[in-house]
Amino acid sequence: MSLKKKVANQIQLSQVFAVFFLLTFSIASEVHSKPAVKPIPLGNSDFQIKQIKHPESLAQPRVSHPVAIPRVSPRSVPTPSVSPPPTSPVFPHPVASSPEAVLSKPPSFETSFTSWPAKTKPPIAAIVSIHGFGLHKESFAGFAQEMANRGISTYAIDVRGFGSWIGDSSEDKKLDFYQTMLDLRSSIYWVKTMNPGVPVFLLGESMGGAVALQATALFPECVSGLIASVPGADFYGGKKTAMEVALRMVRPNSKFNVGDKVVEKATSDKQLQENWRKDPRAKLEMTPKQMAQFAAFMNQSDEMAARIDSAPVLMLQGGKDKLSKADGTERLFKALKTPYKNYVLLDDAEHLIFEKGQYSARTADIVENWLVKQTQRLKSAGFANPR
């Protein structure tokens, strides 16, 4: 084959990739002219909001130490048909071709997460948290410490490719959402083992909200409920980003800084923006290929939301969010089949509702009271040992 023909074929292939990923991102950023649902107004009948108990912890959040889960052999891999947690954490390795691939089994690996144990024993509930795009598990430090002060144990993991995974070139530690789902499931069982009889809830923000939502749909036997902050895939400026990614697909593995745009839109706090950009654990550079992977994963949330038919869900949206459109959050909320769902619009909140110390006393009250309410409902329904 002549050199000229080879070049022509390469250009044609690049154009095909560009069109494909442009369409992918266009779907992710589709604009909906009308909100899917109206926010459910907050009232004492729902949450019975209390005065915050520990205002000093809001001003000076403390960071806990990471807890490493040791490497273990892959004994009995938990499946959806098995309710009791295993006696030790199990870390299966995935075939990451589809959401159902996370149900497969194979070799062991090791992971780590951060914990903030509750100040009361036993804890009221436990939360396993998943961070947003460009952030990491320690981003929950302030909020998690506040929850710990209120008797709720909080844990957080890093999404594969972010935080503690940055700089590791091994294949199983690169950006991988389905491996993250397996990390999450294994971490949930570990938390359940360490907190017998305590209900475990997932909490995720933005990208992490989508991970938590899809995990709840795939592993309903693992969790007692879901708290999802801005988990939708509708972003301001999404079409422009899609075009940029499509043009860069000529070099699909070349990195470019997409994080700067995220930082600017996620918060108006200039000091927080600067700290975020300087944070060595923050992943702000992505390749076009990784961005396409991100978009494809986020777009699956609509289908997954429709699978959640019984788990209680609290979904939140910031009224001043300049990154994620409320339409996307509302659409996912409407798709939920569970009768136990609440949607809260926080008028003064931006994109970050829980992370980087951006939570408020009111937000902490909402989460605490919702967790107490759902835990009491589970116990009154006959779950002496809530799943």
Describe the structure.
37% of the residues lie in helices and 13% in strands. With 387 residues, the chain is of the alpha/beta class. The radius of gyration is 21 Å and the shape is globular. It is built from 12 helices and 10 strands. Helix 3 (141-149) links the parallel strand 3 (125-130) and strand 4.
Shape: globular
- Using the coordinates shown, work out and report the CATH topology: Rossmann fold
Query: What would you say the CATH architecture is?
Result: 3-Layer(aba) Sandwich
* Broad structural category: alpha/beta
The average pLDDT value, as a whole number, equals 75
Radius of gyration: 21 Å
Which percent range fits the helix content? 25-40%
